[in-house]
Amino acid sequence: MSLIAELLIAALLVIGGLFGLVGSYGLVKLPDLMTRLHAPTKASTLGVGGVLLAAMAHALAQGSLSWHELLITLFLFLTAPITCNFIAKSWLARHATPADLPPTGSARQWATLDLSEAPTSPNLTPPPRPGRPS
Amino acid sequence: MIFAFALTFAFACFGLGLLICLWRVIFAPTLPDRILGLDTMVVNVIALIVLYGMARNTGLYFEAAMLFAMTGFVSSVAYAKFILRGDIIE
Hints:
Chain A has helices at residues 3-29, 33-36, 38-61, 68-95. By secondary structure, chain A is mostly helical. Chain B has helices spanning 2-26, 31-56, 61-85. The interface between A and B is large, with 56 and 49 residues.
């Protein structure tokens, strides 16, 4: 392994490790769940991305380039927002009151707090304005 | 030489992160915090598996990391869905 490749891999590893540590430390540092969601979904994902890039560069320096690592990075980047959205919705359902949330602009509550079984009839099209071509 | 030091540093960072997440899972103020802690533990363990694969110089552990990422995602979503609706598949 040449010195340039070794320095590049070492830099990627150090940056990835620092971002992963920041992401985990934000989990205990930040005040409530909605701010705490930022740390793992952004910093930790970036940290793992850095480590996986380092693994790719390591495999390339050994003479065998492999794309598996990029697949794991892609999968993590796709699934982290979905998990974050579900955790935020479960927090809304258990701990938020309607006074905490911004208005929905309709007669119904936010979907996670609305326990009524009545069918929704959303009025999605705005009322026609005079003088405006439709 | 530099590579070995950087690898040890990354191992230490992600191991410390894993311990912090474990502390958050045990002493969580709310239930969604526990799910968030477990999800972050999964991310840290994926990084540790990949780092171990680099240290042993084999490509064997990437499949393990991939499978761990998939099961971690599915279990986090199932847990969140369960405390959201009281059921996983409605």
